[in-house]
Design brief:
With 413 residues, the protein is mostly helical. Helix content is 69%, strand content 0%. It has 17 helices and no strands. The protein has helices at 22-56, 62-86, 89-92, 104-119, 134-148, 152-164, 169-203, 213-235, 244-267, 278-285, 295-315, 325-332, 336-347, 351-368, 377-383, 389-400, 404-412. The protein starts with 21 loop residues before the first helix and ends with a helix. Residues 1-16 and 18-32 have low confidence and may be disordered.
Length: 413
């Protein structure tokens, strides 16, 4: 299964009913293909435009924008290659065919490095990083050398076979390997995002700054695209082949909507919390465990927590919506790592929950005994250190079992 390379490499099967009018069949087929082509061309231009936009975009992290631009450009050129094949352009210029057929080998690595570039503030490509792209280089060079060494007549036969989807077994094997390669990189990207969510809970208190739902959704979306593509590829070999085009159109339309909505949301993400370096990220993940600590270490961490609790009660630093672990540790004159470990081991919480529980408790107090009876829920959430209504509502229900409105009504009764 070439991820996108054979999306259009199918013949729409003729109806089996001999009474079906050939004229009606041809007209309906032409109409369907025209609508499909319009949608297909829209997606190609959309991806091309977004790639150019990301390459020239001055806001946000430039290296992340450019990696994402390369990812979209690879998809765009791969789809364009398939479209030109189906449109018959390569029949007149067979030497130019298939230049985008190897691009699916770039999808996985580019998605993975985009994830790394988002999470690591000092991310950059190294010589070691380039090894991830060697399969594409070798496969592209090998297939192009083989293809161009054939006669024009043989090239035309190969293109006809590809258009009819009469493919040798070796192509199916290679497609399956590309499918597995993408899954390898995609699952590693998901693990990295999951680890990020865990670590940011140790050092950041602002829910908006640790929201990686858009990045998680991006990876999941392209995994689903791969799964549907593989299933559709198998569908075309069965009696249900007549549904292939409908499934394909659904995938292309989903891609069209996704690029507009989800990725534009990602570009608007400002102030996303990145770790300075990979070592800092790994250090936050590591933990010795309470049972493995000496008596002196346990006593020290308990003392740290007592100091933190006293500070939270007296100065209420949690009212600062941008409060971080480093800032709270600086107020306590302890190392951020020591404070994080103390919160984890003694309170069995991470920094995120530690701070936001105080915020929710303060919000509950304001909703129960407000100085101003006319104070709104929106005013309360801003006063206690939140800057997102959805995050406030979610966490309030998590800690109290009620929404802020339900809690207020209950207190009034």
């Amino acid at each position: 299964m070439m991820l996108f390379a054979y999306f259009f490499s199918r013949k729409i099967p003729r109806p089996n009913n001999p009474e079906t009018s050939l004229r009606v069949y041809i007209k309906s087929k032409q109409l369907t293909m025209n609508l499909s082509n319009v949608l297909f061309i829209l997606v190609v231009f959309q991806l091309l435009f977004l790639s150019l936009f990301l390459f020239t975009h001055q806001h946000g992290k430039k290296i992340s924008n450019r990696v994402l631009a390369l990812f979209f450009l690879a998809i765009c050129l791969n789809l364009l290659d398939v479209f030109l094949l189906q449109a018959g352009v390569y029949k007149h210029h067979p030497a130019f065919a298939g230049l985008g057929g190897c691009l699916p080998l770039l999808f996985g690595p580019l998605l993975y490095f985009y994830t790394r570039s988002i999470i690591y503030k000092n991310f950059s490509f190294s010589l070691k990083s380039l090894f991830h792209f060697l399969p594409f280089v070798f496969f592209f060079a090998g297939t192009e050398f083989y293809y161009l060494s054939q006669s024009t007549a043989m090239q035309e036969n190969m293109l006809n076979s590809l258009s009819e989807h009469h493919l040798p077994v070796v192509v199916s094997v290679v497609s399956a390997l590309i499918f597995l390669q993408f899954f390898f990189y995609a699952t590693n990207s998901l693990r990295l995002v999951s680890a990020y969510k865990k670590v940011t809970g140790q050092v950041f208190s602002n829910p908006g700054s640790v929201d990686v739902s858009w990045l998680y959704s991006t990876i999941i979306f392209f995994i689903l695209i791969v799964v549907i593509s593989a299933a559709n590829d198998l569908l075309a070999q069965t009696a249900l082949a007549k549904y292939y085009l409908a499934a394909f159109n659904l995938v292309v339309f989903a891609l069209f909507v996704f690029v507009i909505q989800v990725m534009m949301s990602a570009l608007r993400q400002q102030g996303f919390f990145s770790f300075t370096e990979k070592e800092q990220f790994k250090a936050q993940l590591a933990t010795a465990g309470w049972a493995n600590l000496s008596s002196a270490e346990k006593s020290e961490r308990e003392h740290t927590i007592q100091t933190a609790l006293q500070l939270m009660h007296n100065e209420k630093p949690y009212l600062d919506p941008e409060l971080t672990l480093d800032q709270l540790a600086a107020k306590m004159q302890v190392k951020p790592r020591a404070l994080s470990q103390a919160i984890n081991d003694v309170l069995q919480q991470n920094f995120f929950d530690f701070i936001n529980r105080y915020r929710i408790e303060e919000a509950a107090r304001l909703l129960t005994n407000p100085k101003d009876e006319k104070i709104t829920v929106l005013e309360v959430l801003y006063q206690v250190g939140f800057n997102s209504k959805s995050s406030f509502n979610t966490l309030f229900k998590k800690y109290t079992g009620l929404t802020p409105t339900e809690f207020r009504k209950k207190q009034a009764n």
